[in-house]
């Protein structure tokens, strides 16, 4: 029996609810069609997602979840703004510029 090679997909979401939710639906759709999809966003957004699900086990960075013909996984990165109420979180332009700097160091090319 030959094993099927999965297409690997990494989707990185800007940490805003209006963008996270649609991207999660796309991720799950791609996984169901046979891809290995990793959903990535900032750690604080990951914590908000865990809180919203009321079940930390559903958002686990240590394993992948089978979905349809593929798999789905989470990976959260440190945005270096800490857990507090950082001023850069309140200005879209500042947040975008900061995340572009962090992303260029965090995501290998």
TrEMBL record:
Broadest EC class assigned to this enzyme: transferase
User: Superkingdom, according to UniProt?
Assistant: Eukaryota
Identify the stretch annotated as signal peptide in this record.
1-18
The record's keywords, sorted A to Z, are: Glycosyltransferase, Signal, Transferase
This chain's protein is named Gallate 1-beta-glucosyltransferase
User: Known EC number(s)?
Assistant: 2.4.1.120
Q: Where is this region: Disordered?
A: 85-109
In alphabetical order, the GO MF annotations are: sinapate 1-glucosyltransferase activity
């Amino acid at each position: 029996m030959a094993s099927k090679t999965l297409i690997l997909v990494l989707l990185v979401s800007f940490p805003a609810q209006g963008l996270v939710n649609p991207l999660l639906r796309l991720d799950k759709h791609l996984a169901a069609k046979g891809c290995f999809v990793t959903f990535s966003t900032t750690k604080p957004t990951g914590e908000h997602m865990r809180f919203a699900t009321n079940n930390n086990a559903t958002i686990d960075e240590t394993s992948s979840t089978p979905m349809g013909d593929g798999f789905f996984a989470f990976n959260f990165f440190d945005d270096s703004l800490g857990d507090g109420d950082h001023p850069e979180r309140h200005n879209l332009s500042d947040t975008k510029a900061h995340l572009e700097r962090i992303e260029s160091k965090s995501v290998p090319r």
